[in-house]
Amino acid sequence: YAKSLVKSVDYSDDPDFTNNEQKVVVHVSKLFSDITLSTLKKQRRTFFEIMNGASEWEDLPKYVNSTVGQNLTYYVQVKNEGPEKAEVLFTILTTSVPQEAVANVTIDDSSCKNKKDTIVCRMNLTENDEKVFKVTVSNKKSGGFSQILRAIPLYDKNDPDTTNNKKEIVSVINPYVVSGRVMTLDRNNAP
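-> structure tokens emitted (191 positions)
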């Protein structure tokens, strides 16, 4: 905080000198922006469900299953709850197991940079402003992958609640399924 003393300097026409001082105390707080990150998936809803208040969005669970050749699509909402505007860094780090089961991750925003296994996006968000990204994951081999998603304010902004800035998505890419049976693509056991 800062203290200041204000005094009147012209005493010529003042009959009472005892009331010429005033102390002013100003509290200066550090700027902050509460950045939140949500992972969502769209749900198919009927017209009547939507008219009755059902949301077309649902939280994406941490663990997701997919099949080789099928894309996994989800949405990421990055929001500034305020009170200050902020420049935000949003990243997606992808790791695969086994390593040769590399997942191809794309994002629908051309301003984001895709470098090897990391996608990096920078954005400016005012109070209550949000940005939604569509993320698509495709894989041609079975295996698993993990994605760590983070959204943080840059520079001098403090985030009062950092527990809502990070999510992890763990996916298992299953082999092809034909007529209810798992079909493995192993050349060594081919007929």
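Residues 47-51 form the longest helix (5 residues).
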